[in-house]
Amino acid sequence: MKKLSIIIAFLLFGIGLRAQQTNLTEAVDFTVTDCHGQTYNLFEILDRGQAVFIDFFFYTCGQCQVISPYITGSYTQMGCNLHDVFYIEISYIDSDATCQQWANEYGVEFPTVGVQGGGNEVFELYGINACPTLVLIMPDRSIPIQGLLDLYPFSAQDVVNAMQRYGLQPHDCTGTLTVNPQTMHIFNDGETYEPGLLTISNMTADDVTVDAFTADPIFALRCMYEGQDVSEGMTVAAGQTAIVEVYVDVPIKESFEGQMYVNTSAGNFEVNIIYETTVGIGESNSTLALYPNPANESVTLQGENLGAVSIHNILGQTVETFFTNESQLVIPTANYQNGIYFVRTSNGQTQRLVIVHE
């Protein structure tokens, strides 16, 4: 009889663990505000290259209280949100005041989100019906850790070990300032103006001032952040990321390349700017055709001496590279996100590509 009771208890425990998970295998975007008023967007964090580790909890959850020290321990081992992983905890029922009390009691230094900050909506998006549920979302939007069962038996080191299996490495709690991309595309066809997007990620422990955005004498810049002109400087708080829109403000009719300089209190950075116009693209690419454009599932590139063909996003990052000896190349685009891209060939020709998935 005793043996049967142990078996039943074990089965019930296993069922409980299975309930503490999401059934999603791909991330759904959300924006939340923590109990201190700071707003976070999931895809913005993923797009800057960090994985996101979510602890779904609530204040009076006994098991949540038991594992909280292990989670905060792994948070410290993984670099305090400054490196490979960004930690956040979300409650569906607790107020901001209760979340602040929880964070104080359990020494939680990463963002804590309650019902006032949108916690219940995230619970519904991810189908969370039991706590604690622990979810790891990778930058490619995949969800390799869906619940507590994926981390059992549970300790801080178990969490770290699980993350290392997915290429996420421990770090100390210090970070650096990064400015990306190294090459920025700005497009202007006379009707549509696509500014360059400059990402300033402050993973240091201190606020960083951007003294100025300067450029080659050939052109002037206008830099906008959250609707404000910050061309003369701005501040990026510790642990925060700012995405600055960069515009060329002089009436240039042809495409050109130049340099932009970002001077900050944590170091100086140089960004190559490629300013592209309809006139410039038309003149240099008279033999290059790209269709259909906008594209959905695929796009065909046709021209002479294509050679190496690279696809770049609007941040200047290389998305994919192909090589062909033919005069025609079919490029699959089903996995590309909606947006603007640039297709470049090895002989310097460029075409603007728009991806729209219906």
Q: Helicity, in percent? A: 10-25%
> Helix count?
7
- Multimeric organization: single chain
- Report the principal-axis shape: globular
Strand content: 35-45%
| Strand-pairing-aware structural class | alpha+beta
Distance between the termini: 60 Å
Overall description:
The structure is a single chain. It contains seven helices and 24 strands. The protein is an alpha+beta fold. β3, α3 and β4 form a beta-alpha-beta unit. α3 packs across α6. The relative contact order is 0.11.
Features:
358 residues, alpha+beta, five-stranded antiparallel beta sheet, 24 strands, disordered N terminus
Give a brief rundown of this model.
The protein has 358 residues and is an alpha+beta fold.
Q: What layout of secondary structure does this protein have?
A:
Blueprint: H1 2-19, E1 31-33, E2 39-41, H2 42-47, E3 51-57, H3 62-77, E4 85-91, H4 96-106, E5 112-113, H5 119-125, E6 133-137, H6 156-164, E7 177-180, E8 183-188, E9 193-194, E10 196-202, E11 208-215, E12 221-225, E13 228-229, E14 234-236, E15 241-248, E16 256-264, E17 267-277, H7 278-284, E18 289-291, E19 298-302, E20 307-313, E21 318-324, E22 328-332, E23 339-345, E24 350-355
Parallel strand pairs: 3-4, 4-5, 8-17
Antiparallel strand pairs: 1-2, 3-6, 7-10, 8-9, 10-15, 11-14, 11-16, 12-13, 12-15, 16-17, 18-19, 19-22, 20-21, 20-23, 23-24
Helix pairs in contact: 3-6
